[in-house]
Specification:
Blueprint (H helix, E strand, L loop, with lengths): L8 H52 L3 E10 L5 E10 L33 E4 L3 E3 L3 E2 L7 E2 L6 E2 L13 H6 L8 E4 L6 E5 L6 E5 L3 H4 L8 H8 L2
Antiparallel strand pairs: 1-2, 1-6, 2-3, 2-4, 5-8, 6-7, 8-9, 9-10
Protein name: Prepilin-type N-terminal cleavage/methylation domain-containing protein
Pfam families: N_methyl
InterPro entries: N_methyl_site, Pilin-like
Length: about 230
């Protein structure tokens, strides 16, 4: 009679170890793809939000400001870093926001606080854009589109209150091509949100794109290349 040989303990442990390694590699690869999808979605939503914010600043004649906040609870019960636009009220009396002057827009009460802290400061707010843990979008904080013109100013929570009628001040506060960068701790190369200083129109560009990396002058975007090279 032929006897069937079973697996030894060492062989069984080796087989389990191999399976565990394969599972770990598969999970890591899947997680990387999921992170990439989340980063891409957040980047596109931030760009879309910037276009919407500019449109509202022009149509409503109110400043529209971006705020990036940490640890904001979301419907899934967890807290995330999020970004959203805020359409700010003008006039120093928030109960009568239609009082609009160059020196009182936005309201003084709302210069250094978000509308999440003081909802009375806003006529309207955008949808929260969840920023993945592998992504940094803090440079978008305090980007503001000015009332009526939609021109952008950078790093100004006050939306240039008191200087809205001063072209030199508006030009000096405009973002540069490299001002707003989206950085990633994953393998994804950073992206930049390039906001035109005169029109406020924006475009999001990837720093590993052909326009940023090509040595061929036909395809190369000099402005994008310089923006991607900035720290």
């Amino acid at each position: 009679m032929r006897h069937t040989r079973g697996m030894t303990l060492l062989e069984l442990m080796t087989a389990v170890a191999v399976v565990a390694v394969l599972i770990t590699l598969a999970v890591a690869g899947m997680q990387g793809r999921i992170n990439g999808q989340r980063e891409g979605t957040a980047t596109r939503e931030l760009w879309s939000s910037a276009l919407r914010a500019r449109q509202l600043a022009i149509s409503t004649n109110q400043p529209v400001r971006f705020v990036v906040e940490n640890n904001v609870p979301q419907p899934d019960g967890r807290s995330y870093t999020v970004a959203r636009w805020e359409r700010l009220k003008c006039g120093d009396n928030l109960s009568a926001p239609d009082v609009w002057t160059l020196d009182a827009c936005p309201s003084a009460t709302c210069l250094n606080t978000s509308c999440r802290t003081n909802p009375e400061c806003c006529s309207e707010t955008g949808t929260d854009v969840v920023i993945p843990s592998t992504m940094n979008a803090t440079s978008m904080h305090a980007l503001c589109f000015l009332p009526g013109s939609g021109r952008p100013v950078f790093n100004r929570m006050d939306c240039l209150r008191g200087s809205l009628g001063t072209p030199a001040a508006i030009a000096a506060a405009a973002p540069t091509d490299s001002s707003i960068q989206f950085k990633f701790t994953s393998n994804r190369v950073k992206s930049v949100l390039m906001v035109e200083p005169l029109t406020g129109l924006s475009s999001v560009m990837d720093c590993d794109s052909l326009a940023a990396t090509s040595s061929n002058v036909t395809y190369k975007d000099v402005r994008l290349t310089a923006a991607c090279a900035a720290p």
